[in-house]
Amino acid sequence: MNIYNHQNKLKILLSVIGIIIVSASLWYTNSLVNQIRKNERQNMELWASTIVKKSQLVTSRDSLFQVLKTEERKRVAILGKAFENFVFFPEGPTFAEYSTKNMRIIRNMIVTPFPLF
User: Fold this and answer.
1) For 88-101, what is each residue's pLDDT tens digit?
2) Is 85 part of a structural domain of the chain?
3) Mean pLDDT, to the nearest integer, of 44-59?
4) What is the pLDDT of residue 73?
5) How many domains does the chain have?
6) How far apart are CA 19 and CA 6, in angstroms?
7) Cα–Cα distance, 78 to 92 (Å, whole number)
8) Beta carbons within 8 Å of 93's beta carbon, 6+ residues apart
9) What pTM was estimated for this model as a whole?
10) What is the CA radius of gyration of the chain?
11) Is residue 117 a part of any domain in this protein?
């Protein structure tokens, strides 16, 4: 009878130790999962804010380039008019005709290069 009581106490002790080990393992795993969840949430929030800032930057860049493009076209038109008014005589060719003629000459020079001899 003494051996039987001793074996029962040993079985109960081992069962309690097993339950403690399993409980501690589950608690530790749960705490690790919570830490990983917090870190991943922070990373996703950082990533989302970066994407938002990048899209704002692209939008502002596009609007800036559109304004610059419009302003440059206005300046080129003004320069063309000024060049046409001051350089050419009223009976001479217009700026568009003059630039078309020069483009043909340049194109012909590129297509038929000067002889080397």
Assistant:
1) 555 555 555 656 66
2) yes
3) 94
4) 84
5) 1
6) 20
7) 19
8) 101
9) 0.48
10) 42
11) no
